[in-house]
Specification:
Blueprint (H helix, E strand, L loop, with lengths): L1 H25 L3 H12 L18 H34 L3 H10 L6 H13 L2 H8 L5
Helix pairs in contact: 1-3, 1-5, 2-3, 3-4, 4-5
């Protein structure tokens, strides 16, 4: 029983750490969002190599493309990070085992760290002794 509690505690800590790292790396495409906004609002500031400056301006939809796809990547990454942190909290409190299993499956797409964490979480949560801990969440 103590080993199960220790494994759940460690998994919870690793979920917090992985969620923070995911959120950090998911913020990198904000550079693309900023570049896209810059392309849409100030395309005339880009240097040109020809005398006819207006011919070399990038079309405005390039900026919109950068904003939309960069924003979607950030949104998906932050959502996965938030779900990972929430799963860590649920592991620590011994609540919502199905949610924790679903998130463990989702974070397997974050190769290699998420895969390792997800597989270990699935293995630990499928133990009968751990299932009994989740049935009785009053255990510290």
């Amino acid at each position: 029983m103590n080993q199960d509690l220790e494994h759940l505690r460690l998994l919870s800590i690793f979920h917090y750490i992985a969620g923070g790292i995911m959120a950090f790396f998911a913020s990198i495409p904000l550079i693309h969002v900023a570049l896209g906004i810059f392309l849409m609002l100030a395309p005339h500031l880009f240097p040109s190599h020809s005398p006819n400056h207006s011919e070399n301006l990038p079309p405005a939809f390039f900026g919109l493309f950068f904003v939309i796809f960069g924003g979607l990547i950030v949104l998906c990454g932050w959502t996965l990070a938030a779900l990972t942190i929430l799963a860590g909290r649920n592991l620590a409190r011994h609540t919502r085992p199905t949610f924790c299993l679903v998130v463990a499956g989702l974070i397997c797409i974050w190769i290699p760290f998420g895969t390792v964490l997800g597989v270990f979480t699935i293995i630990v949560l499928n133990r009968t002794t751990v299932k009994s801990l989740f049935d009785n969440p009053s255990t510290p």
